[in-house]
Amino acid sequence: MASEHADHDEATDGTGRPGPEADDATPHADGQHAHGQQDAGQKDDGQQGVDPKIAAAVAAAEAAGPQSGGSVRLDSWIWSVRLVKTRSMGAAACRGGHVHVNGERVKPAYSVRVGDEVRVRQEGRERIVVVKRLIRKRVGAPVAAQCYIDNSPPPPPREAAAPAGIRDRGTGRPTKRDRREMERLRGVGGPGGPGGLGGPGRTQGGRPGGR
User: Could you tell me which residues belong to the region Disordered (predicted)?
Assistant: First the structure.
């Protein structure tokens, strides 16, 4: 009983206040708690604000990719993250000099690593991305966006309308109505104009006039 009182007096410094040993123990416990919160924050880093389904798909794609510190073929990676439509197009773009990694022209089999800057020029636009995750299988657009940091310039604006008289390829020969519409857009043969409906020598129905 006396021993218990002695231990209590030592811990409380005999005045009921916490002694130096108790003061030393409290920061240690607080430090462990803070360290645990820091570790949890590091695990969640990069996944905050991401839809859980997308995060799960990203994790699955990474699991199917190379191990930590590994690499992926360039043509495979740019196809997997949807920078090109097919892997063969990615390989052709590399061979044609339309793909650069860290400012250098590379081959389709070049080994891409995390942190590499990849530039792909295709269809009149340049994509500039920094590799964030390595995957080998093609994924959806939301998942692909989590695999790189996009530094691409904005795409060029599309023309509001095609130039007058220009027809799309594969539409076949123009009909009479199409020809009249093209002539109208070009300002040829318009109403009251030379050779147009209502012009000299033609009746209102468009047939040659006469007695």
Answer: 1-51, 148-211
DSSP state letter for 68:
T
Strand, helix or coil at 101?
A: strand
Note the pLDDT tens digit of each residue in 166-198.
656 666 777 888 778 777 776 655 455 444 444
DSSP class of residue 147? Answer: G
What does R_g of the chain's alpha carbons equal in angstroms?
36
The answer to whether residue 50 scores a pLDDT higher than 90 is no
Q: Domains (ranges, CATH) in the chain?
A: 70-150 (3.10.290.10)
How many whole angstroms separate alpha carbon 92 and alpha carbon 96? Answer: 6
pTM, whole model, 2 decimals?
A: 0.53
Place of tokens 């994924």: 139
Task: For the chain, give the mean pLDDT.
Answer: 74
CA–CA distances in Å: residue 163 to residues 111, 146, 178, 185: 44, 39, 15, 9
> CA–CA separation, 207 vs 166, rounded Å?
28
Helices (H), the chain: 2-12, 20-44, 52-63, 74-80, 87-95, 141-144, 176-186
Rounded to a whole number of angstroms, the distance between the first and last alpha carbons of the chain is 140
Find how far residue 42's CA is from the centre of its chain: 24
